[in-house]
């Protein structure tokens, strides 16, 4: 009988119970299969090295992890005090009293915060106060000494050597042996908030993460940022300033990208493994490593930046958990520092069961591409046998199930698919093994999917299935031809009706014009009759006048006769039109003087002479 013992860095899976025999097999992905009478076991290299109570660490709940200038790792736990780790081994521990907790000296058995100051002294925060460790000498400051609150979760040394301390629901400064609580008099906007992180960026700005928002101090002035400013959650736990000048914040609601005075959140909706980010560590390949309540995961910084800048919709995370050697996948945070990168490049994360250590350089790499296959096709929830290429008419939803074959961490196999006929773009599906489409129009489609193992190696083949959604009879080509003929007929009938209406209108216009023309002709004839009558009357009147003129001229003497008879006489005869009503009458005219003694004689009609004054 063979019973494989569990050991660090190995994943063990039992698949069933077989006959009492022993066999070994090396799998396609480098895994080792062991068949025993008790079942089938699979072994593969793990990425995580755990360090906890079995390795000498006192306590399971680890919180702050700090590497000092000498390269020593210091770890604080919730019930095991302080541990010193050198070359991967626990070399010393300190607690409240001798015995299980190791050497005495601490005011309590919990260590919640760690900080090394510029002198090399180690500062510890706990539920009982602030402790300074210098060699084997411990000095503790409590509320009786001026500490503003308990417990002490965050300790940060300022450039001037003073300490900023997150104590209870207060922020205080420790300088010159005295504590000063930061409040509204100093401009601090959240004096009653729990402090989760304190740090400075490369520009010297002070950032304070609290459970009520993010506080920034620039040039002595405090600014509070909250959900209204773009933070996904007011609990801000960590700050990282990258080489491009971008600030990244770990919050209880996701990872936050801060650039150009704008916060952009990346959450599980964009493919992030978990939204509760405790710490952000960076390796030499510019990958972000983050711990959360669900495990440790890593994402290339370039992907995160592209997602924050809307250049790609999602990110792909590589996740580490119990199957990679972690004794517990839940990480711890909200204490400072909540993890560290050691001098050798290894990454140390506190968890609820010891420490998880990863070395990005020596991570196991699976170069075997996972086969991918399509399992079934469903139309409106009904499975189609043999992946039938023709779906029922009026299909509203199409569901396609696929999978990637991998015995090493199969849950971390990811997929990307494409539906040709709808879009040529490949969609990242993460670890989801089902694609859903609704409201597809009638047509022919080709669904393609490829798989990626946890190391990003793509499947050698692309699985695909073709299917079509037939159009209903009223959407067939023959139906559309009928619609076209009907439309043409309606148009032609409309044209004929319109032409007939125009002809009727033209006829009515012609009749109206003819009636108006006849009426005008009648009016013209009446006017011509009136004109002729007037002309006739005028001719008669003119004839009478001409006749009177002949009578008048016959009665009046001729001018020659007058001059013969009357030597000193003249006649003025100027009728207005044709005939005059006057007759000549002879009168004696006395001479009159005109001007300078000129004499003149005139014969005038009696009517005229009577009206002239000489």
Residue runs with pLDDT of under 50 for 5 or more positions: 1-19, 592-609
Q: Can you give the mean pLDDT?
A: 86
Major sheet summary line: 4 strands, antiparallel
What strand order characterises the main sheet?
A: 1-4-3-2
- Please compute the radius of gyration using only Cα atoms: 57 Å
**Ends apart, CA distance between termini:** 179 Å
Counting DSSP E segments of at least 2 residues, the number of strands comes to 42
**Coarse structural class:** alpha+beta
Strand residues, percent: 25-35%
How does the overall form come out from the CA principal axes? elongated
Number of helices: 4
Portion in helices: 10-25%
Write a brief structural summary.
It contains four helices and 42 strands. The chain is α+β, with helices and mostly antiparallel strands and 614 residues long.
Describe this structure in words.
Helix content is 16%, strand content 35%. The strands form eleven sheets. It has a four-stranded antiparallel beta sheet, with no helix packed on it. It has a four-stranded antiparallel beta sheet with strand order 5-32-31-30, with no helix packed on it. It is built from four helices and 42 strands. By secondary structure, it is α+β, with helices and mostly antiparallel strands. The longest helix has 79 residues, at 477-555.
